[in-house]
Amino acid sequence: MQFINIVVLPLLEGLLYTFLFFIITLIASLPLGLLISFGSKSKILPIRWAVRCLVWVIRGTPLMLQILFLITAPGLLSQVLGLGFRFAIREQWQYFMMVCVAFTINYSCYFSEIYRGGIQSVPAGQYEAAQVLGMTKSQTFSKVIFLQVVKRIVAPMSNEIITLVKDTALSSVAIHLDMFTVAKEIVNLQPKYFLWPLVLSAAFYLIFNGIVTVLLGKLEKKLDYFKV
Protein backbone atom coordinates (compact mmCIF):
# COMPACT_ATOMS: atom_id res chain seq x y z
CA MET A 1 0.00 0.00 0.00
CA GLN A 2 2.84 2.38 0.83
CA PHE A 3 4.41 1.68 -2.56
CA ILE A 4 1.11 2.50 -4.30
CA ASN A 5 0.67 5.77 -2.37
CA ILE A 6 4.26 6.94 -2.76
CA VAL A 7 5.04 5.78 -6.30
CA VAL A 8 2.07 4.58 -8.35
CA LEU A 9 -0.59 7.19 -7.55
CA PRO A 10 1.70 10.25 -8.07
CA LEU A 11 2.90 8.75 -11.36
CA LEU A 12 -0.68 8.21 -12.51
CA GLU A 13 -1.47 11.83 -11.66
CA GLY A 14 1.59 12.92 -13.65
CA LEU A 15 0.45 10.69 -16.53
CA LEU A 16 -2.89 12.49 -16.52
CA TYR A 17 -1.16 15.86 -16.96
CA THR A 18 1.11 14.38 -19.64
CA PHE A 19 -1.95 13.10 -21.52
CA LEU A 20 -3.69 16.48 -21.18
CA PHE A 21 -0.57 18.23 -22.46
CA PHE A 22 -0.33 15.80 -25.42
CA ILE A 23 -4.00 16.25 -26.39
CA ILE A 24 -3.89 20.07 -26.21
CA THR A 25 -0.74 20.20 -28.33
CA LEU A 26 -2.07 17.76 -30.92
CA ILE A 27 -5.50 19.39 -31.29
CA ALA A 28 -3.95 22.85 -31.66
CA SER A 29 -1.00 21.98 -33.91
CA LEU A 30 -2.77 19.86 -36.55
CA PRO A 31 -5.01 22.66 -37.93
CA LEU A 32 -2.39 25.34 -37.31
CA GLY A 33 0.14 23.31 -39.29
CA LEU A 34 -2.26 23.23 -42.25
CA LEU A 35 -2.63 27.03 -42.09
CA ILE A 36 1.14 27.45 -41.95
CA SER A 37 1.53 25.18 -44.99
CA PHE A 38 -0.90 27.42 -46.90
CA GLY A 39 1.14 30.44 -45.82
CA SER A 40 4.37 28.86 -47.05
CA LYS A 41 2.73 28.42 -50.48
CA SER A 42 1.10 31.86 -50.55
CA LYS A 43 1.38 33.92 -53.71
CA ILE A 44 1.89 37.01 -51.54
CA LEU A 45 5.67 37.19 -51.27
CA PRO A 46 6.00 38.85 -47.79
CA ILE A 47 3.62 36.29 -46.25
CA ARG A 48 5.38 33.36 -47.93
CA TRP A 49 8.83 34.45 -46.83
CA ALA A 50 7.70 35.36 -43.29
CA VAL A 51 6.12 31.93 -42.83
CA ARG A 52 9.09 30.09 -44.32
CA CYS A 53 11.44 32.08 -42.08
CA LEU A 54 9.36 31.09 -39.03
CA VAL A 55 9.45 27.42 -40.05
CA TRP A 56 13.20 27.61 -40.64
CA VAL A 57 13.84 29.16 -37.19
CA ILE A 58 11.58 26.70 -35.34
CA ARG A 59 12.95 23.63 -37.11
CA GLY A 60 16.53 24.86 -36.73
CA THR A 61 16.53 25.47 -32.97
CA PRO A 62 16.06 23.00 -30.08
CA LEU A 63 12.57 22.63 -28.66
CA MET A 64 13.93 23.00 -25.13
CA LEU A 65 15.39 26.41 -26.06
CA GLN A 66 12.02 27.48 -27.47
CA ILE A 67 10.29 26.45 -24.22
CA LEU A 68 12.77 28.40 -22.10
CA PHE A 69 12.41 31.44 -24.36
CA LEU A 70 8.61 31.49 -24.09
CA ILE A 71 8.52 31.11 -20.31
CA THR A 72 11.10 33.87 -19.74
CA ALA A 73 10.21 36.33 -22.54
CA PRO A 74 7.03 37.81 -20.92
CA GLY A 75 8.82 38.61 -17.67
CA LEU A 76 11.83 40.10 -19.46
CA LEU A 77 9.59 42.16 -21.71
CA SER A 78 7.68 43.41 -18.69
CA GLN A 79 10.91 44.54 -17.01
CA VAL A 80 12.23 46.22 -20.15
CA LEU A 81 8.98 48.13 -20.75
CA GLY A 82 8.42 48.81 -17.05
CA LEU A 83 4.91 47.37 -17.14
CA GLY A 84 5.06 45.45 -13.88
CA PHE A 85 3.01 42.77 -15.58
CA ARG A 86 1.72 39.87 -13.53
CA PHE A 87 -0.11 36.75 -14.61
CA ALA A 88 -3.42 36.47 -12.79
CA ILE A 89 -3.13 32.68 -12.44
CA ARG A 90 -0.98 30.22 -10.56
CA GLU A 91 2.59 30.04 -11.74
CA GLN A 92 2.52 26.35 -12.63
CA TRP A 93 -0.50 26.82 -14.88
CA GLN A 94 1.13 29.89 -16.42
CA TYR A 95 4.12 27.73 -17.32
CA PHE A 96 1.84 24.89 -18.43
CA MET A 97 0.17 27.17 -20.98
CA MET A 98 3.47 28.59 -22.19
CA VAL A 99 4.87 25.09 -22.71
CA CYS A 100 1.71 24.14 -24.63
CA VAL A 101 2.22 27.21 -26.84
CA ALA A 102 5.88 26.29 -27.43
CA PHE A 103 5.01 22.70 -28.37
CA THR A 104 2.11 23.82 -30.56
CA ILE A 105 4.28 26.23 -32.54
CA ASN A 106 7.07 23.69 -32.86
CA TYR A 107 4.92 20.79 -34.03
CA SER A 108 2.79 23.04 -36.25
CA CYS A 109 5.92 23.94 -38.22
CA TYR A 110 6.89 20.29 -38.61
CA PHE A 111 3.34 19.31 -39.54
CA SER A 112 3.22 22.16 -42.07
CA GLU A 113 6.12 20.66 -44.00
CA ILE A 114 4.40 17.28 -44.05
CA TYR A 115 1.18 18.91 -45.26
CA ARG A 116 3.08 20.84 -47.91
CA GLY A 117 4.79 17.71 -49.18
CA GLY A 118 1.48 15.85 -49.29
CA ILE A 119 -0.26 18.63 -51.20
CA GLN A 120 2.56 18.95 -53.71
CA SER A 121 2.57 15.18 -54.30
CA VAL A 122 -0.96 15.24 -55.73
CA PRO A 123 -0.70 15.21 -59.56
CA ALA A 124 -1.44 18.54 -61.25
CA GLY A 125 -3.95 16.76 -63.50
CA GLN A 126 -6.33 16.44 -60.55
CA TYR A 127 -6.44 20.21 -60.12
CA GLU A 128 -6.96 20.68 -63.87
CA ALA A 129 -9.78 18.10 -63.94
CA ALA A 130 -11.55 19.84 -61.07
CA GLN A 131 -11.16 23.18 -62.82
CA VAL A 132 -12.71 21.74 -65.99
CA LEU A 133 -15.67 20.57 -63.92
CA GLY A 134 -16.18 24.14 -62.72
CA MET A 135 -15.12 23.59 -59.11
CA THR A 136 -13.74 26.46 -57.09
CA LYS A 137 -10.34 26.26 -55.42
CA SER A 138 -11.89 25.59 -52.01
CA GLN A 139 -14.14 22.87 -53.45
CA THR A 140 -11.19 21.31 -55.26
CA PHE A 141 -9.15 21.13 -52.08
CA SER A 142 -11.93 19.93 -49.75
CA LYS A 143 -13.61 17.42 -52.11
CA VAL A 144 -10.75 16.18 -54.32
CA ILE A 145 -7.34 16.89 -52.81
CA PHE A 146 -7.66 16.79 -49.02
CA LEU A 147 -8.48 13.11 -48.47
CA GLN A 148 -5.71 12.08 -50.85
CA VAL A 149 -3.32 14.30 -48.90
CA VAL A 150 -4.44 12.69 -45.63
CA LYS A 151 -3.70 9.25 -47.04
CA ARG A 152 -0.22 10.31 -48.13
CA ILE A 153 0.75 11.98 -44.85
CA VAL A 154 -0.56 9.45 -42.31
CA ALA A 155 2.78 7.61 -42.03
CA PRO A 156 5.03 10.69 -41.52
CA MET A 157 2.40 12.27 -39.27
CA SER A 158 2.36 9.08 -37.18
CA ASN A 159 6.10 9.36 -36.62
CA GLU A 160 5.78 12.97 -35.44
CA ILE A 161 2.85 12.17 -33.14
CA ILE A 162 4.77 9.29 -31.55
CA THR A 163 7.72 11.63 -31.09
CA LEU A 164 5.37 14.11 -29.40
CA VAL A 165 4.46 11.47 -26.79
CA LYS A 166 8.13 11.13 -25.86
CA ASP A 167 8.89 14.85 -26.15
CA THR A 168 6.34 15.64 -23.45
CA ALA A 169 9.16 14.83 -21.03
CA LEU A 170 10.87 18.06 -22.16
CA SER A 171 8.13 20.02 -20.40
CA SER A 172 9.95 19.17 -17.17
CA VAL A 173 12.30 22.12 -17.78
CA ALA A 174 9.40 24.46 -16.98
CA ILE A 175 6.62 22.64 -15.12
CA HIS A 176 6.47 20.12 -12.27
CA LEU A 177 3.22 18.38 -13.16
CA ASP A 178 4.18 15.87 -15.84
CA MET A 179 4.99 12.22 -15.21
CA PHE A 180 8.73 12.52 -15.90
CA THR A 181 9.16 15.29 -13.31
CA VAL A 182 7.10 13.34 -10.76
CA ALA A 183 9.33 10.31 -11.31
CA LYS A 184 12.48 12.37 -10.73
CA GLU A 185 11.04 13.86 -7.54
CA ILE A 186 10.15 10.42 -6.17
CA VAL A 187 13.68 9.19 -6.90
CA ASN A 188 15.15 12.21 -5.07
CA LEU A 189 12.81 12.07 -2.07
CA GLN A 190 12.45 8.30 -1.72
CA PRO A 191 15.88 6.70 -2.39
CA LYS A 192 14.64 3.22 -1.50
CA TYR A 193 12.34 3.37 -4.54
CA PHE A 194 15.05 4.82 -6.79
CA LEU A 195 14.44 2.35 -9.66
CA TRP A 196 10.69 1.79 -9.66
CA PRO A 197 9.57 5.31 -10.70
CA LEU A 198 11.83 5.16 -13.76
CA VAL A 199 10.71 1.64 -14.70
CA LEU A 200 7.02 2.50 -14.30
CA SER A 201 7.46 5.76 -16.24
CA ALA A 202 9.06 3.86 -19.11
CA ALA A 203 6.21 1.34 -19.02
CA PHE A 204 3.59 4.10 -19.08
CA TYR A 205 5.29 5.80 -22.03
CA LEU A 206 5.45 2.48 -23.88
CA ILE A 207 1.77 1.78 -23.26
CA PHE A 208 0.84 5.34 -24.25
CA ASN A 209 2.87 5.04 -27.45
CA GLY A 210 1.43 1.59 -28.14
CA ILE A 211 -2.13 2.91 -27.95
CA VAL A 212 -1.28 5.84 -30.25
CA THR A 213 0.44 3.49 -32.71
CA VAL A 214 -2.58 1.15 -32.84
CA LEU A 215 -5.01 4.03 -33.40
CA LEU A 216 -2.89 5.54 -36.17
CA GLY A 217 -2.50 2.10 -37.78
CA LYS A 218 -6.29 1.70 -37.85
CA LEU A 219 -6.61 5.15 -39.44
CA GLU A 220 -4.10 4.18 -42.11
CA LYS A 221 -6.02 0.99 -42.91
CA LYS A 222 -9.28 2.92 -43.06
CA LEU A 223 -7.78 5.10 -45.78
CA ASP A 224 -6.57 2.15 -47.87
CA TYR A 225 -9.28 2.73 -50.44
CA PHE A 226 -7.22 5.66 -51.68
CA LYS A 227 -4.66 3.97 -53.91
CA VAL A 228 -1.84 6.44 -54.41
Comma- or semicolon-separated keywords:
mainly alpha, 228 residues
Q: How would you describe this structure to a colleague?
A:
There is one protein chain. The protein is mainly α and 228 residues long. The chain contains 8 helices and no strands. The chain has helices at 2-40, 45-60, 63-81, 91-120, 124-132, 137-167, 179-189, 196-222. Helix 1 (2-40) runs antiparallel to helix 7 (179-189), helix 1 (2-40) packs across helix 8 (196-222) and helix 6 (137-167) packs antiparallel against helix 8.
User: How many strand units?
Assistant: 0
What structural class results from the helix and strand content? Answer: mainly alpha
Work out the strand percent.
under 5%
- As a percent range, the share of helical residues equals over 70%
Return the average pLDDT rounded to an integer.
83
Number of helices: 8
The major beta sheet can be summarized as: none
Order of helices and strands: HHHHHHHH
Poorly predicted runs = none
Rounded to the nearest angstrom, the radius of gyration is: 21 Å
Q: CA-to-CA gap between the ends? A: 55 Å
Silhouette: flat
